[in-house]
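The protein record minuted underneath.
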Amino acid sequence: MPVQASSEHNPMRHATRALAAAVVVCTFGGGALAAPPRDGIAKSPQVRPRIGSIDTNTDAARLAALLAGPGVTIGNARFIGDALAAGTFLNAQADVGFANGVVLSTGRVTDLDGPNEFDATSTDFGLPGDADLDTLIAPHLTQDAAILEFDVTPASNTIAVRYVFGSEEYNEFVGSPFSDVLAIFVNGVNCANVGGLPVSVNTINAGINADHFVDNRLGVRDTELDGLSSPLECVAAANQGVPNRVRIAIADTSDGMYDTAVFLAAGGIRSPGGSALTTSALRKVIEYHHREFDHYFITSSLDEIAKLDNGTFVGWARTGRAFNVFASGTPGTVDVCRFFSTSFAPKSSHFYTPSAAECAKVKDSADWQFEDTVFNVVLPDGAGTCPAVTAPLYRLYNDGRGGAPNHRYTTEREVFDAMRELGWVPEGAGIGVIACVPL
């Protein structure tokens, strides 16, 4: 359906204003989030490599061929990144978890040699990031991407990729905007997910997916990286007997400092995958603004995002803000109902709520059309406290300014405070927490 100016008005607002369950997920406008500048340490070349041997190599065909295992053929390879950001390694079983393979880094691969002498090893190549990774890490942006892509023709309808993720961002930048990120896209779908979360510094660490994390601050592994994962597998659906495009991408986030790497096992791409698909439990919500109406609209629908971006729905532009929600059906979460109304013509309105009771009430209203349950969230407690690994989502209401109601939502406290100063009214539990969303 065409999306007009959105004014996410709560039709039961005057009766249910104190409900902590009503949610319209929007965020405060602006561009990509900026992070404070940091300094890194340029590591001197090692006289004696410690991970057996690490050699710089950007011959994409050779690197891709090294990854081929049972049941696959690999070809049509390409590498994107700095000439020092890719290579091969040998004799790393004790330190990485498998002996030989391919390594990609946001810095120099040779700097990954141990021992762990520094906590800020960095090479900033000044190169761009990757748009697909930006989508995973939004609203932040990536830099210094290293990408190896190739075609895989599998013997069955699944493939597996064996890998280890590691970073110098550990542990001091866990939970920050500097969450360097890895993705393994198979036909455009990322399968580098652990516990339903895309692999990054913020999703594998001592607090989240801790059983997959190795803390290397004390140098228990002979590598410069301050932390790394245990050996992991990406398992993805594939088209049997024909080429499938695989794209392995790693990048710094928010700046080009503090190196991050992925080790890929020699012979570690195989078919069939042998276990359950490693799918993501997250969806990305994107916020848009209609300048003429000064209204905001949010969506996680890929079809709507494409039409908003290409101008099919006229007048909308991205604010540069986004946040994660849970996919429908995620255990331990609640559905968010979405409604549509033209009662505020010429401005239309969308309304979202994760409250089953409120959803039922709105369904009985002649002014609102139920569209679907669109994504999931977690509800805060009565004090507005959110569970671990989630962030509070604040909700504020424009009090009907401009002739039509509008809500905006943000996970940023400074944005919440700024909107209150503009006269927006907090709604939700505690100071105005309406839901809890994944980090």
Helices lie at 13-16, 60-67, 93-96, 131-137, 302-310, 356-363, 413-421. The two ends are 30 Å apart (CA to CA). The chain is about 10% helix and 35% strand.
